[in-house]
Each structure stands twice: as structure tokens, then as C-alpha cells.
Amino acid sequence: MRRTAQVISLVTIVSFLSFGLVGCTFIFQKGRRSDIEKITQLKSELSEMERAKAELEDKLKREIGNKEVKIEMLERGLVITFVSEVLFDSGKAKLREDALEKINKVSSVLNTTVRDLNVGVEGHTDNVPIKYSGWKSNWELSSARAMSVLHHLVDSQGVAPQRLSATGYGEYHPVATNDTAEGRQKNRRVEIVILPKVSKEEAVVPAQSEENLK
Q1: From CA 10, how far away is CA 39, in angstroms rounded?
Q2: C-beta of residue 68 within 8 angstroms of C-beta of residue 83
Q3: Are 136 and 146 in contact (CB under 8 A)?
């Protein structure tokens, strides 16, 4: 009876995690008790990110309602997407003054609820070629915008620099068509991604035999 209860408990935990982290598949094979600890760690991180999502949705309620910000729990982590026009003037990489308050709402959660998790800042553009703004290409512009957000988080908000990275993807990771003005606006964005410590590969957990569960 004791072994049966332990197995049921393990299956319940895995079912919860599979619902919480889209795209992760948990495969059971013969293994060690330490793998249960890995499940527990992942469950704790997901719980932190779910709390962070709820807090961000509350803090950014107005911006979400105005379609300036979108918050999603995706396979790669908790993604906060800002429309570029909310943060920057056209062709520029300097943060607008009225954008700082919005980013500060994110940093307050980064410094509390998910203070132990790493964060990626990603810049994206549409596919309209650079003509007048002085950048060599959309890669440079997207990278500079990501770095501007990163430096603000570190220099003004005290986010630990070792937690942060910045990447410029240019026009090469679109989320909508570039054939319409609406699609191009969606593609011009900055994403702040709260990253889980446990990777997808680490989430493939060996199962516990009855002997190991004793």
C-alpha cells in the first residue's frame, strides 16, 4: 500500500508539471530517487513563474488592455512582449521616458518573485530595410534595443547582471506576416524572457522502480 501511494503521488506531480510547462514531455524509466528531487525543483520553479505571471498581469493590466504588452507562459519560459513603439521612437534605440515606468514594473518582479531565475532580453524588428536611421541593418537595431533594456534593468533597477543576456534577432523571428502594417507592428518587439533553470532535456525524468521507491 505504501509503495502504491508513492507511485500515485509521483504520477500526480508529473501530471501537474506537464500542464504547467507546455511542450515538456516527462518520460519514465528506471532510475534513482534523486530524480524525484529534480521533479520537485522544476515544480518549485514553475510555481514561482506562475506567481510572477499573475503579478505582472496585475501590474501591467492597463498596458495589456491597450495591447502594448503581452504575457505568455511558453515552453522556453515566461515571456513579456513589448511592442517596440511603446519603448522606442522609430529607428531609435534609446528608451522613451514614458517607457521606463513600464519596464520598472517588470523589474520589480524580477527582483522579488523570480530573483533566482535568469532573464533573456530579445530584440526583434520587421523586415523593412534600414534607410535613414544610420543602423547598418535590422540586426544592429534589434541588438541595440535589447541592450538598452538590459542596461536599464542593471543600471537603474539593480537586477544582477550575471542573470541577464541580450540578443538581437533582427527580422528573422517574425510572429506575424510582414505584408501588413498590423503584422509588421507585431514583429517590432522586445521580449523579456524569464528562464527556468531546468532545461527541457533535464526534465526527462527516469521513473522509479518499486525497489527504488522503498
Answers
A1: 9
A2: yes
A3: no
Which domains does the chain possess? 2-44 (no CATH), 46-195 (3.30.1330.60)
Instruction: List pLDDT tens digits, range 114-123.
Output: 999 999 999 9
Question: How long is the chain?
Answer: 214
pLDDT, tens only, 154-207? 999 999 999 999 999 999 999 999 999 999 999 999 999 999 986 444 444 444
| Residues facing 192 on adjacent strands | 80, 121
Cα(70)–Cα(92) distance, rounded to whole angstroms?
22
3-state secondary structure the chain: CHHHHHHHHHHHHHHHHHHHCCCCCCCCCECCCHHHHHHHHHHHHHHHHHHHHHHHHHHCHHHHHCCCEEEEEECCEEEEEEEHHHHECCCCCCECHHHHHHHHHHHHHHCCCCCCCEEEEEEECCCCCCCCCCCCCHHHHHHHHHHHHHHHHHHCCCCCHHHEEEEECCCCCCCCCCCCHHHHHHHCEEEEEEECCCCCCCCCCCECCCCCCC
